[in-house]
Amino acid sequence: MTATHKEMADARLPLGYRDFCADLLIPLNKCRSETYYLPFKCQDLRHDYEKCQYDDYLRRMKAAEEKKAAADE
């Protein structure tokens, strides 16, 4: 996570979105507000954010599986 708490607060990110991918969400939200939420204007930023969210999900699931396997031993 490279976005600081101050950057996230300045960007007015809701607490639920202040996660591992917040550094990608800040420019995405800025692009969205500048282009009036036109869906085709910020596709690259949105794709990068969604990929980060998916990778974070996979990382958390892998950690949960490892934790469960360690508890079963």
From TrEMBL:
Keyword check for Electron transport: yes
A Pfam family the protein falls into: NDUF_B7
PROSITE patterns associated with the record: CHCH (PS51808)
Domain of life: Eukaryota
GO-annotated cellular components: mitochondrial inner membrane; mitochondrial intermembrane space
Record's subcellular location: Mitochondrion inner membrane; Mitochondrion intermembrane space
Similarity field: Belongs to the complex I NDUFB7 subunit family.
Functional note: Accessory subunit of the mitochondrial membrane respiratory chain NADH dehydrogenase (Complex I), that is believed not to be involved in catalysis. Complex I functions in the transfer of electrons from NADH to the respiratory chain. The immediate electron acceptor for the enzyme is believed to be ubiquinone.
Protein name, as recorded: NADH dehydrogenase [ubiquinone] 1 beta subcomplex subunit 7
Organism in which the protein naturally occurs: Podila minutissima
